[in-house]
What we know:
- It is a single chain.
- By secondary structure, the chain is of the alpha+beta class.
- It has two domains: 3-139, NADH Oxidase (3-Layer(aba) Sandwich), CATH 3.40.109.10; 176-335, NADH Oxidase.
- It is 40% helix and 17% strand.
- It is built from twelve helices and ten strands.
- It has helices at 3-7, 24-35, 75-94, 129-134, 152-163, 183-201, 204-211, 234-246, 250-263, 277-296, 306-309, 314-320, and strands spanning 47-53, 56-61, 97-103, 112-121, 175-180, 214-215, 225-226, 266-272, 300-303, 327-335.
- Strands 1-2-4-3 form a four-stranded antiparallel beta sheet, with helices on one face. It has a four-stranded antiparallel beta sheet with strand order 5-8-10-9, with helices on both faces.
- Strand 1 (47-53) and strand 2 form a beta hairpin.
- Helix 3 (75-94) packs across helix 10 (277-296), helix 6 (183-201) runs antiparallel to helix 9 and helix 7 (204-211) runs antiparallel to helix 8 (234-246).
- The protein starts with a helix and ends in a 19-residue tail after the last strand.
Amino acid sequence: MSLREHELQAWNVSENRFPKEGRRTEALKFLLNYAILAPSSHNTQPWLFKIVTENIIELYADRTRALPVVDPEDRALTISCGAALFHLQIAIRHFGYAYKLELFPYSNNQDLLARVIIDGRKEPISEENSLFEAITKRRTNRLKFEDRKLQEALISKLRSIVTEQGEEGVEGTTTWLHIAIEEGEKNSLADLIAEGDHIQSSDKRFRRELASWVHSNRSHSKDGMPGYAFGYSDIMSYMGPFVIRTFDVGKGQAAKDRQLAVGSPILAILGTKSDEPMDWLKAGMALSKMLLLSRSKNVWSSFLNQPIEVPELRPRVQEVVKEEKGFPQLMIRMGYGLDVKPTPRRPVDEVLRS
């Protein structure tokens, strides 16, 4: 096995290896193999888990992996942790456990984001099998999508799963989803994406931060974004971090992202009714539902969050989706396309707190 294959080994997790016998804590640790495959901003993987007892798993924010320039409030960090939490929930249910969920259980500890309490056994929900199977197939696909519409049934289901009521332990719903299909609306959003590219790329601090998470295709890093995730050849991937750090490439990036946005079958804006850490965590859980459902239908996704990351542009995104009230949290492009390689992951042992 090559070093690069070793860093991608996490994606080869098999449910056949689930430890049916032995201690419950071993089973809980195995379930985390699915949580760590969640998406995160710059693939920072900003989560930590603690197996407290044979019945309790805690999720913590790893703020040493924060992005202070592009995400000064840890909004995206918390969303990423919410996505990992939903992966964990799906895995728990798939292997036949019931559970209770507590979000931000202690108001004086904002690093402890969630506590999952195993509460006996429960038959898996057959309708969720496809979501579980999609965990190891999900990727962030930054390549151009096909000129092919998404099925109306899928679009309708995406809307419903984002806005459905919370489960036990999660009061109500704060999330909403706006889907842009018409060319005029996609063009308006694409203009904001391009403007965001110009603003971000002109900021040396932003470029330095981004470059620190972009790696060559032959890097041994277990996090960050290898050049191949952007379609770079091996040679180009060696130059990528230097170019990003040194030059303002906003004009070219804006043109590329604008084309990607307009050419995508849909642009989805995931938002919340308010804008607090609890909302961000729930947005991450809703995001994970969206991505797994769409991947189960052979649809790829990637993010164009620039106008949400730039404070002065975020209200203008809300103006485009004016029928929804609240705060845009993520912009996701979705469509059909070619398969792409996964990105590296830290192994479970590296994200476990003692």
